[in-house]
Design a protein that fits this description.
Chain B: Residues 1-70, 304-330 are annotated as: Disordered. Chain B: One of its GO terms (molecular function) is aspartic endopeptidase activity, intramembrane cleaving. Chain B: Keywords: Endoplasmic reticulum, Golgi apparatus, Hydrolase, Membrane, Notch signaling pathway, Protease, Transmembrane, Transmembrane helix. Chain B: It is an enzyme of class 3 (hydrolase). The complex is a heterodimer of chains A (233) and B (437). With 233 residues, chain A is mainly alpha-helical. Chain A has helices at residues 3-25, 29-58, 65-104, 114-142, 156-183, 187-203, 215-232. The longest helix of chain A is centred in the middle third of the chain and has 40 residues, at 65-104. The termini of chain A are far apart. Chain B has a domain at 76-288. Chain B is 57% helix and 4% strand. A three-stranded antiparallel β-sheet of chain B has the order 3-5-4. In chain B, strands 1-2 form a two-stranded antiparallel sheet. In chain B, helix 2 packs across helix 9 and helix 4 runs antiparallel to helix 5. Chain B is globular, with a radius of gyration of 22 Å. The model of chain B is unreliable at 1-66 and 295-345 (pLDDT under 50). The chains are: A mainly alpha (233), B mainly alpha (437). At the A-B interface, helix 2, helix 3, helix 4 and helix 5 of A face helix 2, helix 10 and helix 11 of B.
Chain lengths: 233, 437
């Protein structure tokens, strides 16, 4: 719990996303806007899914811990589905915008291609998702404390950072794949993205081993990330 | 809205350009006197020289011709302007949030209140508290309306010196007194040993350079930096001295007032704008953030007859005087204006009133001050930026003056309350179990 941990975890979690932003997005104002709008859409999806979860929590017995945990799991899956719905909605919005531009433009090219928009939108989703998962953890890591003093894993911060990194990149890749699937009307691609997202979210819920480390899940997340990278390239 | 003569000429000229073919290279060299039909890419903006109390009428950019490339350039151009506003707004918010999180002075509640919010909020009774916050809001908004009307009257009767003096006093207070307070608190927080002579020199230099940059001439970036700093200082004062619930209600009420004052035909701001346009003159020296300098028509130069550039707006910062009551340019607050204009040579950039900066930062700062949750702050930040983006989009579509507050503040408020009450427990549970969505 030091400044070192803070910086280490911050760079692990946000380093690649930040570099992607600086090198590919920061120069072009249109991409920045699409990025922020993507973050906004992710936020909207989170808002709606939290609303649903909150209602379900309030409507249920707050003493029953198993029920609470099950409701949380339901909340997670619902949130994943809603995120994909909002990704689709964002795709439609961006398509309309591009079409509008293309319609009035003499040349057939628009300022930004759908692939670029897909990448930027995915990154927007990823950054926002990562920020929401990680920022409170990071700010806690600056203060005094001992990790895992009550028997929890002492690697909480580092696993959180790595998971955030994985999810950010995954969101980026899912964005690209999803938009591609929508463009070419390949619905199996969309179904694959959605099911992979569900799978990833679900994997995190595997029972942890004795040391409390998410061995399996982290490994599989990285496998997914590599697979997606390969696919995208 | 009335347009000035020069704009009408250019407008007529532009309508004559309809049949042009698109040039290979877009030229931004559109001058008012240009009459060659080949110049298709002039994007002239109608400048709305509005009076002090503009709650952010937004200037729009118009493409000179209906060419597609023109529109694409408009989009890129528009996107560039959006970013030119994102950056200062973000910086102001970052300064405010950083201060709130590190210097506890600004988030401590005191029993001291501004004279504009005379009713005390009693934390014990919800109904009473709500009632008092509404009363506070009514007082504050009526003060603002009153000030705006005084300003319109002063402007109509050409009491320029009075208004100038008022603005100078207001920025004096901000640059010297509030920055002194701020530095004092920062030193206390970090336990920095400082002596009065050094401090006096620092404050003196800071203040004098600020006055020169803001009211006269100075390097553009320095002027921008000063404007951001004074907006942040003002926002911090608001965050400290406005009671909890009153602050939220005031934010909401100010956006509604903004909407009314700019869009309704009898709104004071609209009258100011029209008066200024009739006289075809710039309004007052900067309480407007501008993102690009026009060399021929100096930003800080208020005597420029080519009104196109001077946009005036009274920041709610005049509310600066709150703590000290004497000057009243305080309540001019609520006037913000947001205008875009184009340079003769180069992109003149966009202007946004400082009141907008202040209220955006107040919202984000309050989100940061309540509880330790960063998610709420981040959500409000994104919401405000998206609101600003939408406002600009509406500007491009409707091509008339629009207030810059309502959409952003509405989004900000919605996201603040929903994130704080709905998303926070959800994310906390997820983090506790280390679930990732």
């Amino acid at each position: 719990m030091t400044v070192a941990v803070f910086f280490g975890c911050a760079f692990i979690a946000f380093g690649p996303a930040f570099s992607l932003f600086v090198f590919t997005i920061a120069r072009d104002p249109l991409r920045v806007i699409i990025l922020i709008a993507g973050a906004f859409f992710w936020l909207l999806s989170l808002l709606l899914s939290s609303l649903v979860w909150f209602i379900s929590i309030k409507a249920s017995n707050s003493q029953d811990l198993r029920l609470q945990r099950d409701l949380l799991i339901f909340g997670v899956f619902f949130s994943v589905l809603l995120q994909e719905v909002f990704r689709f909605a964002y795709y439609r919005l961006l398509r309309k915008a591009t079409e509008g531009l293309a319609a009035i433009s003499d040349e057939d090219t628009s300022a930004i291609s759908v692939r670029q928009m897909a990448y930027v939108a995915g990154l927007g989703f990823g950054i926002m998702s990562g920020a929401f998962s990680m920022i409170n953890v990071l700010s806690d890591s600056l203060g005094p404390g001992t990790v895992g003093i009550f028997g929890d894993s002492q690697y909480y911060f580092i696993t959180a950072a790595l998971m955030t990194l994985a999810l950010t990149l995954l969101h980026t890749f899912w964005g690209v794949l999803f938009f591609e699937g929508c463009e070419k009307s390949r619905w199996w691609v969309i179904a694959a993205v959605v099911s992979l997202h569900l799978l990833v979210a679900g994997l995190v819920m595997f029972p942890l081993d004795a040391a409390g480390e998410l061995h399996i899940t982290r490994a599989s997340h990285y496998c997914f990330t590599f697979i997606h990278t390969a696919r995208v390239i | 809205m009335n347009t000035s003569d020069s704009e009408e000429d250019s407008y007529n000229e532009r309508s004559a350009l309809v049949q042009c073919e698109s040039p290979t290279i877009p030229s931004y060299n559109q001058d008012h006197d240009m009459s060659l039909p080949q110049e298709t890419d002039s994007k002239q903006r109608r400048s709305v020289s509005s009076g002090l109390d503009e709650p952010g009428p937004v200037e729009q950019e118009r493409a000179a011709t209906p060419e597609g490339e023109e529109e694409e350039l408009t989009l890129k151009y528009g996107a560039k302007h959006v970013i030119m506003l994102f950056i200062p707004v973000t910086l102001c918010m970052v300064v405010v949030v950083a201060t709130i999180k590190s210097v506890s002075f600004y988030s401590e509640k005191t029993s001291q209140r501004l004279i504009y919010t005379p009713f005390e909020e009693d934390p014990n009774s919800v109904g009473q508290r709500l009632l008092n916050s509404f009363l506070n809001t009514i007082v504050m908004i009526s003060v603002i309306v009153f000030m705006t009307i005084i300003l319109v009257v002063l402007y109509k009767y050409r009491c320029y010196k009075f208004i100038h003096g008022w603005l100078i006093l207001s920025s004096l207070m901000l640059l010297f007194w509030f920055s002194f307070m701020y530095l004092g608190e920062v030193f206390k927080t970090y336990n920095v040993a400082m002596d009065y002579p050094t401090l006096a020199m620092i404050i003196w230099n800071f203040g004098v350079v600020g006055m020169i940059c803001i009211h006269w001439k100075g390097p553009l970036q320095l002027q921008q930096a000063y404007l951001i700093i004074i907006s942040a200082l003002m926002a911090l004062i608001f965050i400290k001295y406005l009671p909890e619930w009153s602050a939220w209600v005031i934010l909401g009420a100010i956006s509604i007032y903004d909407l009314i004052a700019v869009l309704s035909p009898k709104g004071p701001l609209r009258m100011l704008v029209e008066t200024a346009q009739e006289r075809n003159e710039p309004i007052f020296p900067a309480l407007i953030y501008s993102s690009a300098m026009v060399w021929m028509v100096g930003m800080a130069d208020s005597s420029n007859p080519n009104s196109a550039d001077q946009r005036q707006r009274n920041e709610g910062g005049a509310l600066a005087q709150e703590g000290v009551e004497s000057e009243d340019d305080a309540a001019l607050g609520g006037r913000r204006r947001f205008s875009a204009e184009e340079d003769l040579e180069e992109d003149r950039g966009v202007k946004l009133g400082l009141g907008d900066f202040i209220f955006y930062s107040v919202l984000v700062g309050k989100a940061a001050a309540n509880g330790g949750d960063w998610n709420t702050t981040l959500a409000c930040f994104v919401a405000i930026l998206i609101g600003l983006c939408l406002t600009l989009l509406l500007l491009a579509i409707f091509k008339k003056a629009l207030p810059a507050l309502p959409i952003s503040i509405t989004f900000g408020l919605v996201f603040y309350f929903s994130t704080d009450n709905l998303v926070r427990p959800f994310m906390d549970s997820l983090a506790a179990h280390q679930y990732y969505i």
